[in-house]
Amino acid sequence: MTKKNSTTVVQRMKLIASLTSPFARKVRVVAAEKHIDYDLVVDVPWDEHTQVPRLNPLGKVPVWVLEDGKALYDSRVIVEYLDSVSPVGHVLPRDARPRIVVKRWEALADGICDAAALVFVERKRPPEQQSPDWMARQMKKVHAALEVMSEDLGKQEWCTGEFFNLSDIAVGCALGYLDFRFPEIEWRRAHPNLSALHDRLMQRPAFRDSLPVA
Ligand code: GSF
To answer: Of the candidates 85, 107, 128, which is a domain's last residue?
Structure first.
């Protein structure tokens, strides 16, 4: 930590994250692709002594802590911020229309993670408190979103066409999360084009280095 002048304390930027969170993985991949330097602080928001609620009243990771200590959340805000601070390897198009298309992909991929994470948490409750209807409703969203992602990807190399961007990162993190928490979902067999996309993504160090770990 360095003192810039008598009032401002400058610290290295920090990412507060769990190593299982697909949203945090998205941020880690974006930061790596853009060569943005930061300290990774592992914090599991479900743990008794978590510090996450001090930084994010919603109690969720990821949280990005700026040099002046200000905390940014959620993952969509953080990736926009990261893309705006470095011109290296832009992950969001500048123009409004293609940018919104990428954000739509991100919403779809994040939506898979939201629904899947709810099921994961529900499955950890005592069996008599679990709601099969609730879990089925969430899993329906996961399968419907996979279907649409596969349809929209079609035969393209990357989600929005020729160029790799945030849509691919978000989709890759969602697929990786399904592999990690729901290995029984055979999305590769149902959607070979998503499987090929995932294989392409796994050739990138940013993806290989951020696989979820329990
Ligand atoms: C979702 C973050 C989230 O659900 C974002 O950052 O994009 N819209 C947010 N994080 C989960 C961990 S995970 O499932 O990735 C989390 O922190 N859950 C703790 C809680 O109390 O819900």
So the answer is: 85
In sequence order, what are the beta bridge partners of 16? 41, 63
The token duo for 133 is 């209807």
For residues 132 and 85, give the distance between their C-alpha atoms in angstroms, rounded to a whole number: 44
How far does the centroid of ligand 1 lie from the alpha carbon of residue 182, in Å?
17
**Predicted structure pTM score:** 0.95
Which tens digit of pLDDT belongs to each residue from 107-156?
999 999 999 999 999 999 999 999 999 999 999 999 999 999 999 999 99
| 57 and 151 together in one domain | no
For a mutational test of ligand 1's pocket, the pick from 16, 18, 20, 23, i.e. the residue with the most ligand atoms closer than 8 A to its C-beta, is: 23
CA-based angle 36:97:164, to the nearest 5? 40
Q: Is position 27 within any domain?
A: yes
Q: Choose between 61 and 3: higher pLDDT.
A: 61
Looking at residue 214, its pLDDT comes to: 87
Kindly tell me if the per-residue pLDDT of 35 is higher than 70. Answer: yes
